[in-house]
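Exercise: predict the fold of this chain.
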Amino acid sequence: MNTHESATLLNLTLDGQPVTARAGSTLAELLAQHPSMAELAPERYATAVDGVFVARAHRVSHILQDGQAISVFQAIVGG
């Protein structure tokens, strides 16, 4: 990988596993492209970036930054 290519990739963690994404990627794009998420409907899980909850509606506009940690967990509703 040359220097230009490495500058356009983000190094992230997804549920503790290292992943890469292109610079400018949104949380929704990362999740849609990741094989472990392919079979899950977006409404069936919740997400957090660096420990901060990201609502499903905001995933498409949440731009990822290098070094961030993404957590995916089962959404729990109740009363």
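Check your answer against the key: The chain has one domain: 3-74.
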